[in-house]
Amino acid sequence: MLPYTPGEQPPPGKFIKLNTNENPYPPAESVVAAIKNAASGPLNRYPDPTATLFRRAAAETLGLPGPDWILAGNGSDEILTILVRGFVGEGQKLRLPYPSYILYRTLADIQGAKWEQVPFLDGWHLPSVFGEGDRDLRLVLLPNPNSPSGTVVPPDQVERLAASLPCPLVVDEAYADFAEFNCLDLVRKHENILVTRTLSKSYGLAGIRFGFLVAQPSLIAKLANIKDSYNCDYLATIAATAAISAQDWLADVIAKIKATRSRTESRLREMGFDVTPSQANFVWCTHPSGRHEQLHEYLKKNQILVRYMNFPDWGDGIRISIGTDEQTEACMMMIERYLQSL
Amino acid sequence: MLPYTPGEQPPPGKFIKLNTNENPYPPAESVVAAIKNAASGPLNRYPDPTATLFRRAAAETLGLPGPDWILAGNGSDEILTILVRGFVGEGQKLRLPYPSYILYRTLADIQGAKWEQVPFLDGWHLPSVFGEGDRDLRLVLLPNPNSPSGTVVPPDQVERLAASLPCPLVVDEAYADFAEFNCLDLVRKHENILVTRTLSKSYGLAGIRFGFLVAQPSLIAKLANIKDSYNCDYLATIAATAAISAQDWLADVIAKIKATRSRTESRLREMGFDVTPSQANFVWCTHPSGRHEQLHEYLKKNQILVRYMNFPDWGDGIRISIGTDEQTEACMMMIERYLQSL
Q1: A82 and chain B in contact, CB less than 8 A
Q2: A256 and chain B in contact, CB less than 8 A
Q3: What are the chain A neighbours of B32 within 8 Å (beta carbons)?
Q4: Which of B78, B89, B226 sits opposite A228 (nearest CB)?
Q5: d(CA B208, CA A71)
Q6: Does B1 contact chain A (CB < 8 Å)?
Q7: What is the ipTM of this complex?
C-alpha cells in the first residue's frame, strides 16, 4: 500500500506556498475573535458530539431543511474516511475518475477494498460508464470541481449518473465556493447524492480541521454511528460556526481569488501554456516544452512552491494555487524567467 | 451494530457533571494564553501533519528516546480507531477485559471484526487466558487504570501477558496520571506493548481533541500511513504542546484530585457503599440496597450527573467522577439524602 502524500509543508514564512490550494487570506476577523473568546471557555469539558451550533448555522446559510442534514467532521478528510468505512467493506469497490484526488485510492487500500479509475474524456467530460453499476461497487467519489483540472461536471450530468448508480455518489465539493455550479440542491431530490464540503479552502481555515457532509437525515444518522464520539474539537466548532456565518467576508475573498485566477490564466497563456479554464482556487497548466518537473524544481529553488503532478498513462503538468496578487505575480515572473532560460 | 453511547452532555452550567471523568479544573493559564496567541497565527495554512512541536515536547517530558516514538491524534479515540483499523481486518478478532471500556467493541463492530471479552477475576485481577494467543486474534486492548473500576494491572503482569501474546497489546492509559504505576517504560523493551494517552483527563483538555500513542518507531511509521493526513488541528496542537510542558500545574491538579478522591471514598464507605479503591479520577461503588439506577435518577433530578452502568452477567453500580471538593461534597450530600429516604 502506498500512503497518500499531501503537498509539502515547509517552515512558514520562507516560501510562497502555491502548492496545497490554501486560501492566501487570513480568516474573517470574527473567526479570530471567536477563538480568542472561546479560549477561556469550558476546554475541560467534552465538546458537543455533533457540533450542533455549527450544523444549525450551516443549515441556515446553505438553505438546508435542518441541521439533521449535516454531519460534521475533523476536516472533510475525516468525512471521506467515514464514508469509505461506512459503505465499502473488504474486497468491495469504490470508483473515482482519473486523474483526480488520489486520496480516495489510499482510503480504499487502508480498508482492504478495491478501487477503479474511470478516465475522463477529452475536455474533462465523464463517460457514461462512470454511472454503470457492477456487483462489488459500493461507493462512487467525484471531486467537483476536480483536482488537478479545476473543471466541473454539471449538476444535470451528476443527476443522471446518480440515477443509474446502485450506490451512493459522493460529490466532493471542497472547491465549490469558487465554481459556478454546485450539487447541494440535488441532495434533497436524490437519496444517493451526498455532498462533502470543507472550511479549509474558501473559508481560509485549513489549520482548523473542519469539514462536513450534506445528505438525507437517515444516512446522516447511520454514518454518525461510525465516527469517533467527540470528533469535532470545541475550538474548531466555534471557529467554523463563526466562519460560515461570515458570508460577506466569503463573497469578498472569493471575488478577489477569482479575479487573480483570471489574470493568472491570461498570464500563463501569454507565456505559451495550455491552461484548463478553472472553477477552483488553482489552475492546471502544461507547457509545450514539457519541462514541468524542471520548472517545479526551479521555482522551489527560488522559494516558490507549486505542485508538480505526474499521472501515469495520462501525463504531467503543474498545478498552481491562486495566492494573493503579489504572490501570484511573483510566481508568474519566476516562470517567465525560467522559460527565457530554456 | 449498537453504536457506542458516551455519557450525557447537558447544556453547560446547569448540572454538576460527574459522569464523564472530565477534569473539574480549567487547563493551565499557559494553555489559554497559547491558544489566544495562536488565534492570530496561520489558520489558513494546513497544520503540521504529525504535530512535531507536540511530539518533541512530549518525548522530552516523558523521557522517551525521541519524537518518532509518538503518534498524535484527534483524541485518543482516534488513536484507538487507527489501531483497530491498522491491526484488525474483517472477521479477525480483538480482545478486551470485562467489564471495561465498551468503545472497543464498537470499534470492532464498525470494522466488521469480532471481539472477545475476558472477565476480570475477583479483585480485578486478569486471568492468564487474557494472554493466550489464538488464530484470529490481532489486537488486545487493556484500559489501565480500567473503567469502571479504577483499578490497575501491575506492569509486571502486563509484561508477562505481552510476552505470551502473538499480537500487539495496547495499554490504554487515559487515567495513568492519577495512578501509581504506568507501562511507558515497557514500550522500549517490548515491540508489542503500545501505550495510549490523552490530554482530555489529567490535562483538563477534553474540549481540545488531542491524544497520542507511544510505540516503537517502526510501528509508529506504519500506523501514520493510516491516519488522515492532517488529523491534528493547529490550535489543538499548540494547546497540547503548552499543556504537556506545564508539569507543575499537572502535579498540583493531580494532588488535588487525589485528595478529593480519598475523601470521596471515605464518605461513600461511611454511607455503606462498597467502594473499589481507585487509581483514576473516578470511583466505582455499589450499595447493598442495589438501588443504583434509582440513585442515578434521583441525583439527575437534583442537577447532579453521575454514571449508572449496568454490565450484563456481571452487575451494576455507580461511577462518580472526581470533581472539585465543592462539587463532590454536593454529590455526597445528595446521596446521603437519597439513602435516608429509603
Answers
A1: no
A2: no
A3: 39-40, 43
A4: B78
A5: 19
A6: yes
A7: 0.95
Grid cell of A14 as nine digits: 520562507
* Identity at A30, one-letter amino acid code: S
Chain B residues touching A236 at Cβ < 8 A: 233, 235-236
Q: Does domain B16-25+248-341 have CATH number 3.90.1150.10?
A: yes
List per-block mean pLDDT (blocks of 10 residues) for chain B, which spans 342 residues.
Answer: 69 85 98 98 97 98 98 97 96 98 95 96 96 96 98 98 97 98 97 98 98 98 96 98 98 98 98 98 98 98 97 97 97 98 92
User: How many residues are present in chain B?
Assistant: 342
**CB contact (8 A) between residue B6 and residue A229:** yes
Residue count (chain A): 342
Check CB contact of A211 with chain B, cutoff 8 Å. Answer: no
* A291–chain B Cβ distance below 8 A for any pair: no
Domain limits, chain A: 16-26+248-341, 29-245
Q: Domain B29-245 is of which CATH architecture? A: 3-Layer(aba) Sandwich (3.40)
Radius of gyration in angstroms for the set of CA atoms belonging to chain B, rounded to a whole number: 20
Domain A16-26+248-341 has CATH 3.40.50.300: no
C-alpha cell belonging to residue B100 = 471495561
d(CA A150, CA A327): 20
Nearest CB neighbour to B45, from listed A22, A32, A81: A22
Q: Which of residues 21-40 of B touch A (CB under 8 A)?
A: 22-27, 31-32, 35-36, 39-40
- What is d(CA A213, CA A195) in angstroms, rounded to the nearest whole number? 6
From A7, A90, A207, residue closest to B234, measured CB to CB: A207
* DSSP states of A252-292: HHHHHHHHHHHHHHHHHHHTT-EEEPPSSSEEEEE-TT--H
* Residue-wise pLDDT tens digits, A11-27: 656 899 999 999 999 99
CB-CB contact of B239 with B94 (8 Å): no
Residue B48 with chain A: CB contacts under 8 Å: 9
Residue A6 to residues A78, A103, A106, Cα–Cα distance (Å): 15, 9, 12
Distance from C-alpha of B284 to C-alpha of B317, rounded to nearest angstrom: 7
The reply to whether B11 touches chain A by the CB within 8 Å rule is no
| SS3 assignment, position B120 | coil
Residue B305 bridge partners (DSSP): B17
Amino acid (one-letter) located at B140: V
Cβ–Cβ < 8 Å for B168, B80: no
Q: How many helices and strands (H and E) does chain A possess?
A: 11, 13
